Amino acid sequence: MTADERIRDLNSQATVLQQQKRWREAIALFDEALAIGPGNASLHFNKANVLATSGNQTLAIPSYKQAIKLNPNHWKARLNLAHAQYAVGNLGAAERTLRNCANRAPRNDADIQFALGKWFAKLDQFEKARTHYEASAAASPPNREAMIELAAINAQLGDMAPAVALCRQALSSGPATGRAYHLIARLDPQSLNAHDIAVLRDLAEDKTKSGPDRRMASFALGRYYERADKHDDAFAWFVHGNRLRRSSHDPQQHQQLCDRLMESFNADLIAAKQVHGNATERPIFIIGMPRSGTTLCEQIIASHPQAAGVGELDELKNLTTQIGSSTYPENIAKLTRSDVARLAARYLKRIDQLAGSDALRIADKWPTNFLHLGFIAILFCNARVVHCQRDPLDTCLSIFTENFTGVAYSNDLQHIGSFYRQYRRLMTHWTKVLPVTIFNLSYESLVENQEKATRDLLEFCGLDWNPACLDFHSTKRAVKTTSMQQVRQPLYSRSVGRWKKFQRHLDPLRHALTNRS
Questions:
Q1: pLDDT tens digits, residue range 488-511?
Q2: If you average pLDDT over every residue of the chain, what do you get?
Q3: Closest listed residue to residue 100, CA positions, set 68, 125, 123
């Protein structure tokens, strides 16, 4: 057997072991092959992929770099290197890798340009993402998915008409796709015509189609019928869409988590640990249930010339895994002064990377950070927390009627009600034990008297009054959440009391909110 034949044989064996998730054995065979052919870029790339897939991103990085050194046009190695750098928290290196790839990659390669667009969107660099999606959509043959992602980017940046036009272009160039129709239904539901509705019905009911396509078609139909004041039909389609989503939510398990949070973050522990906290006043933590006005609150603050918003940042959740070897929240008791300083510094570095160092205040809008308020109070002794509140039935109904993919409890009214009840229980605990001030922002009060509520909010944030905050809908910044279309409009009251239109369907939710069987 020649050296090349032996390398191919070892590579094949290692690939089989990788598919079987026998990571160590696969890596050993790749190392054996590399001992024979150290200049083989594909072997370095394949080994790096095994390391990355098995969770060892740090060791994968040098293998990806070696593959790139041996083959500078190995685009997948460059993209995977960026992913590994991002995974270990080296965002600067990830961005440099992507920029280098973007500068060298062929503009007419639809797949590479699409992948670059996805990555720059992940890094919240939306203009760069738009450029690469445009290149992918213009390639020959064009990437239809790139048209839809480009439409989503335009919507996030507030360019609604081009977004709808791109969705229509994508629909005209191939089979119906739920994603394109779902965007149209969000941005311009009145433009859906009888033909669209017939296509959407077929798509939603066709069991040969993908789950996401059927689900998004169902939610698009729900939006259409609600706008047409056919609320029973709308609710039926929302139910249909939610039934197409798998849920991993366990209400009892979540209640146990809340119990553990309240036990771990008691007043004595917080008082003992908080003295080590960073004294900065820059972060503003916006918390609350999803669909309670958190995006609106962030947009108002970010409209102030001395403030910025970083969107839904999961950095605090990530930091909870870096406290100690035991499980969060029990590992909070092990936090040392140096731990607090290190974790706070990492958080501040992350928001600086996203918002820049000039902003006096930076709004972090991750609604379920209400789970981590004790952790926030320990890291930042002068933390400012804005708690967004909205009518429980409106909040929970809005969650149910959104196509949430990362919210495990959102497809079941009883689960939503149970989660809401635990959220209120936890917030009651925080108000008793936390030394930080929590500002309650009522969505209904904001709608009723926008200027007063805005003035109170800015005063709490330590920001001078600025009328630009009343014109939040004119602020040019990307909004990635499901509220991206609402915050491009002046405040309106039609969402207040929305639950009344669907009240005949909400008994399971009412029962869950009041803990009645």
A1: 567 777 889 999 999 999 999 999
A2: 91
A3: 68
Between CA 496 and CA 396 the distance in angstroms is: 13
Handedness of CA 176, 186, 412, 505 (dihedral sign): negative
Query: Cα–Cα distance between 2 and 135 in angstroms, integer?
Result: 44
Predicted pLDDT of residue 486: 67
For the segment 388-444, what is each residue's pLDDT rounded down to a tens digit? 999 999 999 999 999 988 899 999 999 999 999 999 999 999 999 998 889 999 999
Assess whether pLDDT exceeds 50 at residue 517. no
- pLDDT digits over 44-64, tens only? 999 999 999 998 999 999 999
Q: Which residues contact 435 (CB under 8 A, 6 or more apart)?
A: 270, 271, 274, 377, 381
Distance of alpha carbon 493 from alpha carbon 502, whole angstroms:
17
Describe the strand order of the beta sheet including 384-389 as a list of residue ranges. Answer: 307-309, 361-365, 283-288, 384-389, 437-442
| H-state helical runs in 246-391 | 251-264, 267-274, 294-302, 315-319, 337-355, 373-379
CB neighbours of 301 closer than 8 A, spacing ≥ 6?
A: 284, 286, 307, 309, 361, 363, 457, 458, 461, 463, 469
pTM: 0.85
User: CB count, 10 Å around CB of 485?
Assistant: 17
Query: For residue 139, which phi and psi values (nearest 5 degrees)?
Result: -70, 170
The rounded distance, in Å, linking the Cα atoms of 373 and 427 is: 9
Answer whether residue 222 shows pLDDT above 90.
yes
φ, ψ (nearest 5 deg) of residue 441:
-110, 110
Model confidence at 477, pLDDT cuts 50, 70, 90, reads low
Cβ atoms of 287 and 294 within 8 Å: the answer is yes
Q: Residue 288: helix, strand or coil by DSSP?
A: strand
Token digits of residue 262 = 């309240």
Using CA atoms, how far apart are residues 249 and 229, in angstroms rounded to an integer?
32
Quick check: 104 and 135 in contact, CB under 8 A?
A: no
Amino acid present at 232: D
